[in-house]
Amino acid sequence: MGTRKKVHTFVRVKPTDDFAHEMIKYGDDNKSIDIHLKKDTRRGVVNNQQTDWSFKLDGVLHNASQDLVYETVAKDVVAQALDGYNGTIMCYGQTGAGKTYTMTGTTENYKHRGILPRALQQVFRMIEERPTHAITVRVSYLEIYNESLFDLLSTLPYVGPSVTPMTIVENPQGVFIKGLSVHLTSQEEDAFSLLFEGETNRIIASHTMNKNSSRSHCIFTIYVEAHSRTLSDEKYITSKINLVDLAGSERLGKSGSEGRVLKEATYINKSLSFLEQAIIALGDQKREHIPFRQCKLTHALKDSLGGNCNMVLLTNIYGEAAQLEETRMVKNLEKELALLKQELAIHDSLANRTLVNYDPMDEIQIAEINSQVRRYLEGTLDEIDIINLRQIQEVFNQFRVVLSQQEQEVESALRRKYTLIDKNDFAAISAVQKAGLVDVDGHLVGEPDGQGFGLGVTPFSAKPGKKSKSKKTFKEQLSSSARKEGASSPVSGKELDVSTSKTQLTPSSKEGDVKDMTIRERETSSIEPLPSDSPKEELRPPRPSTPPPKPVAFEDFKNERGSEINRIFKENKSILNERRKRASETTQRINAIKREMDVTKEALNFQKSLREKQGEYENKGLMIIDEEEFLLILKLKDLKKQYRTEYQDLRDLRAEIQYCQHLVDQCRHRLLTEFDIWYNESFFIPEDLQVALKPGGSIRPGMVPVSRIMSLGEDAQDKFSQLQQVLLPEGPDSVAFYNAKVKTEQKHNYLKTMMGLQQAHRK
Ligand code: ADP
Ligand code: MG
């Protein structure tokens, strides 16, 4: 395999005010890092816990700017790509440690842009500097989630959704992904557009497809193809640069997680350890076989990891003690240990039989256990201490006692209010049906579907006492509102929860009617959140019968829900304007220098012609010029230098302006989309449909193309587009850009919205 390039490794420490000096130490040359964890004495005397680690690296990036990170980590890799070397830069680390910040950077601030946009800039700079070569640049953006491949640029209008799933294919030229869209970009700006498109898709996908973006690997690839314009026989140079934002490396505990999370954890843990295996194998010069094909990640990167490739692994770590210790895991272990100790104590006592108490428990002891069980069920006691086996058995006994008592209480409470009929007593049921009190399915007449009072209540197995984490059930809302309003209903929510489904309820004829009316009223009104139970609700004035004109509403929106995005939008715009101003000043300076250069050139020419007329002096082949001409030459040289510097500045400024322009466009798009949503929510969507949009509803606020829920009339749509152009004129280009983006987003959200509506409907 020839000589392999070394894998370069760096650590970037996330800045913190609370840096763990006593735990993290860097070597003097900044090329090693030592991590020291304090020995946890609470874990007992016999303690094999490892407390010290030492890593050799190519560099530690502490409080490093994005600029410095790029210089250190990426610049050479990108530079060598134009000479034909494939390169891969990967960010590895726990979620939140700064991988995406390092790779993509923040989109709010040009200065904080990450490796991706900088790499694109460098590639296009280098192309400008090599006019003798014809160089083409293509990009693609791949996401790997649960071993499935997703094209983050498939949303572009000319790509279209792929029919067959993507596959990784190997041919003599290398590895490529069949079905992944690859985009030719002739200038920096196009490349930025693609990057933004992909980033937006990453965010949208996490909402519409319920993917957690930190649980997937994202690979942005820049493909470079170059050949000499002058030498016809020179071969083509092809190379690619993979910029990889890996999934969060935290080990998700398998015991606690289930379903989706467990699946994600399994795939991430597997793919990261396969990556590790591949990298270790690459580092071993004697190894012939490198296991690339074990997972999609290493397979897709196969031709960019090994051999003659530049490879950089940047590990993002937190600088805080709390994060280093993985506190959660330690706590779990501690708890487990405590339980084990208790178990051992029981064994011990069984063995020497000194503590074992075989006497039956007396009444006081039993009453105490009964009280413990009740407090445990209420949630006021966290744990019941285990003392011995007999006590454990008594705890179980008392559980049974308390439970059957509660059952009886509930039943009698219900009987006081309702007539109970056995579900299998068809004669009785049909009599009640005839009287019109229940419908055929046994629901109370006039109730919304499936909310039959007393039917379909929380099953017996539901853990009583402890409040479930999910949002309040309808029954809980009902009972808590009843309690708050001081209603005298003897049926508390808790009691309802434990009612069995053996019986079904109809209102008793005596007092039921009045109360049931109020309950039914509440039930219908409970579709809207109960005032005291919905702290998150925005305080919105009642709806006007006719919606306000959009320009007026837009001003309100900017002060309300849109204030934050409007602030960012304004900030970006002012940065953009400031850069534009500087660019125009620089241009003026360049023009002035150019004029002066022209004047100087003319003067020089004049001097030269004068010299020629007077006859040239020559001394041993050296031309002799007078001082005036000499000074002019010096001046021209100096001007040229100034010109070049200013020109370089202007080029940088222009790139920055382009970037800022994209940010401004993106913000404007967000602002208008959110306004669209807000306006429709506030004035058009029927309030019952908004349930799905509420916090905890099936659709996340801010991600819904409300125009899809209640599509406005064509006229209104047209007027709105016009309004957008009038309100925020930034040139026709940005409007086209904005329109394209809105369409993309609407397409993404359409499916999600329909699903949400179906769910709301089913409820
Ligand atoms: P990851 O992608 O590893 O989950 P992020 O890159 O999203 O983590 O970082 C989490 C948060 O910390 C973000 O808000 C990000 O802006 C911030 N952050 C990360 N690294 C830095 C840094 N070096 N300087 C400033 N902010 C940072
Ligand atoms: Mg991330």
TrEMBL record:
The keyword ATP-binding applies. Residues 542-551 have a biased composition (Pro residues). Residues 6-340 form the Kinesin motor domain. One of its GO terms (molecular function) is ATP binding. InterPro entries: KIF6/9_C, Kinesin-like_fam, Kinesin_motor_CS, Kinesin_motor_dom, Kinesin_motor_dom_sf, P-loop_NTPase. It holds the Pfam family Kinesin. Gene3D superfamilies: Kinesin motor domain. Residues 323-350 form a coiled coil. GO terms for biological process: microtubule-based movement. Belongs to the TRAFAC class myosin-kinesin ATPase superfamily. Kinesin family. Interacts with HYDIN. This is Kinesin-like protein. It comes from Lynx canadensis (Canada lynx).
